[in-house]
Amino acid sequence: MTRPHDAARRRFLKVLGSASGALIVGMRLPARADTPDELLGDALLPLNPYVRIETDGTVVIGARDPEVGQGIRTAEARVIAEELDADWPRVVVVPLPLGAEDGNGEPRWTFGHQEARGSTGMPAAWNDLRTVGATARNLLVRAAAQRFGVNARRLQTRLGKVIAPDGRMLDYGELATAASLLPPANIAPKLKSPEVFRLVGQDAGDVDARGIVTGRELHAIDQLPGNALVAVIARCPYPGGALKALDADAARALKGVAQVLTIPKPAATELLGARPLAAGVAVLAQDTWTALRGRELLKIEWKPGAPVHGDDALAAPLDARFEEAPSTQVRDDGDYDHARKLAHRAVQARYRIATVAHAELEPSNCIAQVADDNALIIAPLQNPRGALDAVQQLTGLRPSQIEIRLPRSGGGMGRTLDNDHAAEAVMLAKAAKHPVKLMWTRADAFANDPYRPFAVHDISAGLDRKNRITAWRQRIASTSRLAGRGEPRERWWLSEAHPDDLPAGLVDNYRLDWFALDSLLPRGNWRAGGHGINAFAVQVFLDEIAAATRQDPLQLRLDLLGEPRQLPYRGHGGPVLDTGRLAQVLKLAADAIGWTKKRNDGHGLGLAFHFTYGGYVAHALEVSMQGTRLVMHKAVIAADLGRVINPLGARAALEGATLDGLSTALGLRITLKDGRIAQQGFRDYPLATMTQMPREVQTILVPSQEAPTGAYEMGLPGAAPAFANAVFAATTVRVRSLPILPELMRLL
Amino acid sequence: MPRLPQTDPGITPQPIRPGIDVSINGKPFRHTGDPAMPLLWYLRDVLRLTGCKYACDDGSCGACSVLVDGKLAQACGVTMQKLQGRSITTVEGLAQADGTLHPLQQAWIDEDAILCGYCQPGMLIAAADLLARKYDPSDSDIDGIGNLCRCGSYPRVRAAIKRAAAAMKGARK
């Protein structure tokens, strides 16, 4: 008879022997712990392993979250290997597919967290995955205790070996088979105390590095099943448009073209992210080149949709719009109007943030194989659960019939949180009755993207006689990225305005209003979400106050942050924001750039800080004008991300996000021409090259015992405002628009 | 010597098909398809050498960088018909046959110049081209590499090139 206690444990941890005698430890996450045992049924059996210990001592660790360059595969494996006391050189890391089983109405997620969104992978892994390593270690130690005839409590583990008090040692490989026959311990195994960590907190290179430098690592786009047809789609270039007329005779006649299929205009009721972005005509051919040539031979007439609005058209009527009532009053502390009237002086400025595209280097692609009773999807996917949902809707298959593989992605940046590419590929594979590999070209990716929203921030502040900020009103007008995603209009502000972002909570009379705009372009998640936009306005405005009142921008920020204390923070990254941790990183960044050093070389310094998803980050930039050329000399990033699992990886993430933020701030924007997107490639959407980026990038990580926050997005929001503030210091020209370079050239 | 009776194997030997002969990483290949096919798609779809990455179509990103007779080229912009008799090196051909990594590859690993990894094969080829021209490249020389990285790996790429240059200098002594 099974005691309830055992059943609960069995649900949580799964230990399997295998034909080869390996020890396999998987884990069932307690998300659906209320599911009665009998409903779990056979679904327990095909559980994929997190840890497999081979009889030769090789430790195979499954990494569950999609790798998009954030280093999650490495970091997750380090967490498991730490608790397991594995010998790192003998660890092999493999990606896990999406773990989904048939549930009661909705899928049951067997691996827990599996997405690349909001830097949430590491916090979730820290909570979940240490137990996996500890459980495997516990089994190995108990197996060794039997072999040694010694109490398990007297055994130690180190570098993939169990060590007895008398010095006898057994390798994990020698114990794997015996361990696989033991029942799991009936109490949860004890986790290590941080002071004995050997791997967590130490540098680890990316586990896929060798595959990448030898060209052997297969990103999603590099996979091509032998029987698949390559599909490319001519998509309607007019957002919301439809197919009017098609002549596909010439394309069909091309040798190697197998089929020409149409994808209808998505219905207004279909949610963005789970359906194609646009109507299209697909050419399926034997290889990519033939498909591309076939697409060129299509004769298509498109019917434009409702006229879309570019940034200029959206910005023009804002003076009047801001006088009307806001769509949402997000926060209203004290009495702004009264405090503003009493103020000794006032500062006001308006900032404009351009619409941008994702431009992740690996264009969207998806392999789809759909049969009557099963489907296989291989694609860059940041949101594989969403992909499963889209595939289910299109095929009627059950979760257990759908395999979703998660190869490494060439970027992501939020683009593949939407699953339009998976929907397209499944539709084509179904219609063609043939496996399909869908390829997007670079031009395709610019023409149809869930773009980052356009935004205008209008900020007014009132200051007292000592130049302290007593009143702050921020009016945000933006094209919410929640439009078209099943959210009611009254919730659209949620992606745009964060009610607890500073200086909320630091200024007594504070008002935050949101005004809805609509461009009719699809919008989506873009690295760091609204933080990447909002930090620019706030941190440049603080500099404007400093300049207007002849205060030091560092001191003004430190005065504003005040005494170290915890403020409530309701958004992602909360429940609290610690002003002391922000002040600390700000001081570290300022020190490292030489903030107080007198300069006579014409170089300008700029600072910014921001709290993003639980991470505290400050930036300092040093720039100069060399003739007409804007040169970035140095960037400093100081970050407090709680406990850092892999400092080498965290530094890569912070540096990378900073450069991404600078590159985007420098010159990137999406514009409209004749009702369609003007940009077609990197020549008119110039990602920064090496020569435009700072040669020196210094990253300072604050040692911390706090829970890990992740690292991938926190480095982005502060980069652009620190850069704009440095440009002002170097040139006395205040740039209030992103991108900076075109505006600076106009103002100079 | 008496001949044994033979059964018909059912295979008709094909005449040698005309095509474009190229050497890829030291091995001979004949392309018998469309002569206008860009090298990029020949490498990726036909030979499955997918270290040559697709990212832009117009030579602006460098992800598909290869060496043609030792010179840097973008595989998306070179058609097969221009490659008769040429020798092409892709990232898969940088390491030695026994698996020993090129100093640049080792330096990339040592500096952890990876992030998403998509641009790195092209970066490595561009760096190999640079080091073939300049044994001891300056920062300005390295700035001449115009390959695009969206993840921001440039500081690590720079450090890796310097590390490899130092290692190769040491090996020549």
Characteristic terms for this protein:
heterodimer, A: 748 residues, alpha+beta, Aldehyde Oxidoreductase, domain 4, seven-stranded mixed beta sheet, six-stranded mixed beta sheet, disordered N terminus, B: 173 residues, Ubiquitin-like (UB roll), DNA polymerase, domain 1, 2 domains, five-stranded mixed beta sheet
Describe what you observe in this structure.
The complex is a heterodimer of chains A (748) and B (173). By secondary structure, chain A is of the alpha+beta class. Chain A has three domains: 4-213, Aldehyde oxidase/xanthine dehydrogenase, molybdopterin binding domain (Aldehyde Oxidoreductase, domain 4, 2-Layer Sandwich), CATH 3.30.365.10; 220-306 and 359-447, Aldehyde Oxidoreductase, domain 4 (2-Layer Sandwich); 546-748, Aldehyde Oxidoreductase, domain 4, CATH 3.30.365. Chain A contains 21 helices and 33 strands. In chain A, the strands form nine sheets. Chain A has a seven-stranded mixed β-sheet with strand order 13-14-11-21-18-19-20. In chain A, strands 16-24-23-22-17-33 form a six-stranded mixed β-sheet, sandwiched between helices. In chain A, α13 (384-395) packs parallel to α14, α16 (531-548) runs parallel beside α20 (719-731) and α17 packs antiparallel against α18 (579-593). The longest helix of chain A has 21 residues, at 647-667. Chain A is globular and about 80 Å long. Chain B has 173 residues and is an alpha+beta fold. Chain B folds into two domains: 20-93, Roll (Ubiquitin-like (UB roll)); 103-172, [2Fe-2S]-binding domain (DNA polymerase, domain 1, Orthogonal Bundle). Chain B is built from five helices and five strands, in the order ββαβββαααα. A five-stranded mixed β-sheet of chain B has the order 2-1-5-3-4, with helices on one face. In chain B, β3 and β4 (71-74) form a beta hairpin. Chain B starts with 19 loop residues before the first strand and ends with a helix. The mean pLDDT of chain B is 94. The chains are: A alpha+beta (748), B alpha+beta (173).
